[in-house]
Predict the 3D structure of the following.
Amino acid sequence: MLNSQNDAKDSFYNELTAISLLGKEAKVLEPNKVTKKFCKDFNITLKGVKNYEQLISDNEINLYINFTKANIIPFLDSMNNGIICLLGNTNILDNYPILKKYLVVDSDDDCNEIKDKCIDALEHKSEILEQYQIFIKNYEETVDKLKGEFIGEEKNIVRTDDYKYLITIVIPIYNVEKYIEKTLQSVFSAIVDNTEILLINDGSTDNSAKIAQKFASEHSNVRYISQENHGLGNVRNVGLKEAKGKYIASIDSDDTINCNFFKEAMPYLKQDVDIVIYDWLSIIPDKETFPTPALDKMLNFENNYKSLLYATIMPSACNKIIKKSLYDELHLTYAELKYEDFSANPLILMKANKIKYINKPYYEYMIRSNSIMRNTKKIVDYDMIKVIKILEDNISLYSNLTHKIDIKEFKNYVFWWRIEELIINKIYDLDAAEISDYVKLIYDNIGDTLLEIYKDNEFVDNIISKFDDETKDYVMKRNKAIINKKLEKFILAHKKDYKIITAAMILYNIDNRGE
């Protein structure tokens, strides 16, 4: 089962139903509560595994059937290991009729078709693997040819004429009539040649659409797209699909950029870097302005790559110019949830081979109390729990691509402060019944991740050493409660004397005690 159990667009449970019809065992990467219950209800023998290597090996057949994305990597890994893999939503096998006949499913909703395809594929395994050798030989020759075209002695390694534009600027728009004109003016003051701008109106109900349409009508390189409201994650996915540039830059429609944002990046884009990253200039309107470095200096890492990867602003798409092919090669899309950047961009950073960090605050981030990220109407944060689970699954799936870093170390530093600030810190303000439900939700969805991090004594000791003695004692007791799954009891006992733990405390040793 190579699909994600957490993505409703995948065919995961239809595949499980087909396995039920076959009377076979299902192997699943870290099965969640819903999957376990489904298998129990339908008498499916379930085998849970911890990593991608275990998931994809020693199977009769692998299933990767979906009609929303077609990631070639799991298919190749499976077939190269001699294990048949069924697919959906692909034309990669169109020139290989035998492979298409036995491996490509016409409908992700037809459980009987999936079942029958499994039976037929296993019966014709030798023929399929023989034809696959022809396919993979041609595929590798094509890849080598493309490498020969794209990689050479010249500094401009990748030809820009493979794209209509060098840069696509994606600007999501939703009810920002007070700010959008200033945003667009800043973008146009920074624009360089061979650039297109996508203005994507996500169902605005104010005058944002009129302002955007006016700009689009005045500039030939601006495209205006209007849709019903789906949220920022969906807009970013529309931008990925519609972009015709080699690189993608995302500018939120209530922020601005420095006039040198693109100009200074140009030499590096022409040298085919994968990502250009800038610092932020954080602006609290009518109050203060301060730089926010993308290079994290909270902890001492042996190289700048880790400092960029573990930074608190690491996943944001807005302070980066990113090569579109990184998304295409991984077939990544953003989760259509809050914190959508965190569901995809960490993997993009892991995959990138060449990153240019420009230590200048060229992205001007406006901190507004009414923004999506700072909306306090929802006390607890269900979306961060979901997004951590999505990223955890994707890391397991693509772990073979993340050669630069220790995955365990990555999850410790990147997940820890988000769990602290955006999940655990929220619990103290709930009433007893809400605390019980929320803590249960945490353990049901990211319990394994939670325990993996907080049981890492070396990591935890390093974090705790940054605190004052009183905070250190508190955190040690609370961590013990987390590991022993007694967090609910601990929270209830400390509702009046709790401590808020944040990433900033590591750097500034701030005591944020509750009142």
